[in-house]
Amino acid sequence: MQDYSVYAGHWVTLDEEQRVAGVGNTPEEAQRAGSSLRPKGRLRLARITATAPHLALPAWPMEALRPLAHDLRLWLVGGAVRDLLLQRPAHDWDFVVEGRATTLARRAADTLGGAYMLLDAEHDTARAIVADPETQQPVTLDFAGLRGATLEDDLYARDFTLNAIALTPDGELVDPTGGQRDIAERRIRMTTERSFIQDPARLFRALRMAAELGFTIEAPALDLMRSQAKGIESVAAERVRPELLRILQTETATVSLRQAETLGLLAHVLPEITALRQVEQSKPHHYANVLDHSYAVVAAVKVLLAQIYGRSPAALCLREVAAPSWAWARLKTALLPYQTALLAYLAEPVTFESTRADLLSWGALFHDAGKAGTRTVEANGTTHFYGHTESSAGIVQMRFTELRFATKAQLFVNRLVAEHMRLSTLSNGSLPLTRRAVYRFFRDTGDAGVAVVLLSLGDVLAVFGPQLPRDTWQRVLRVATGLLAGAFIHSEVVVAPPQLLNGHDLQALGIEPGPRLGALLEQLREAQAAGEVQTREQAEAFIQAASAATEGE
Predict the structure, then answer these.
(1) What domains does the chain contain, in order, with CATH numbers?
(2) Taking the model in full, what pTM does it have?
């Protein structure tokens, strides 16, 4: 944590790590000082509050709102104040207004060139969506009238003490519940024992905040969460889904998932996942039950992503997977040539709320969801799960529909789950990987293909754990890198070869429109990918031969 006390009452420019780059008595002086020392750095202007704990109060949007609220009392509340105390960039700009909150929201939208949205006329709540002048990205400013007769009443009505702190435009903190102390002690504490009754969505919100902040939920809150877990069933899916998404985004998601399971919460929102606790499996699986294996795959994906992002993976995740260190080292080396391409691929949004990296973790959690309904046992005790990939994909469709996921997200995870065994199947075949095999893999997996490769790698690591054979891992990595090379290096040749002939060309060759024409085009495309057809003349000859071979079928 940075100590800003020496800059109390002054203007500063901060870098992306919240360190002071320049200081001045005016915003202009601080801006000039920061720019001269960091001419190419992305700097933010802030005012250090004159009173302890000396917060770095961002100039925008606070200074922009000050003149607009000249006839109203205004406080910044909730997550933004908490993040300022933690010296994290603030994202959730929530304001409480004594007066007409909707009036101030409209003023903000009009003055800052944004859009106005009335959220709740009865409770005097509205939103201004404006562009951040630094990044030009849309930022949401929410304004609400006081809930209660006083600000203190409003703060006590909030969920947890760390979110029940207000800040005046001049930098004075109002903290009636002791939230500053709880933040300092990294603790999530309820403002009232009725917190979860007032809004059961807070059950998962507590887990999410603990995961994102690295905080601990106090024991009395955990007891109430356990006793009131069923209340989560009354919460709309549109409110539960974002909390689950953010939990799965965290590096230590399995800690939150296990805690949700222990508290009885997970069974109410993902019952098909908790059911896997009772499903036993035999060797070579390192984990005796499918749920622990699924958690391990989530952890393996988190380690794999950390390697791609160039970060040190969480020790907890490494312990969860229990794979040997040499296996991780070989994986890192194998992925390194594709790091830049993988970063771009994973960052691509699938929906407005989920990237491919986000949904990869969901694929890890659901990849074996169908095993509960497909388990068979041989006389010698060996277990099998024939058809579990198709069953798992069906469960994804059902659960993602229940949680109101966007269709694109559902289809992406469905494909991940349905195809997650493909890499292992290929690694058990003959090597090296043929161009035809690479083509067929991406033909069947589509946009999810690279994510399927990553999920499959995590699955193999979690299946074998510390007993992972070196030769098995070497074969898996050879197939994985062959597929990644096809996706990122040879895509225009092997995955998506240029079209030599189209449907009109085939009709000119005497092929009637219909399913047979489409099938012949697909055969041609595969022959191109395999390197058997390279010119238009060869393509025409191929079609004529293939057409003759299928005459009468």
Answers:
(1) 5-190 (3.30.460.10), 191-269 (1.10.110.30), 273-495 (no CATH), 503-550 (no CATH)
(2) 0.91
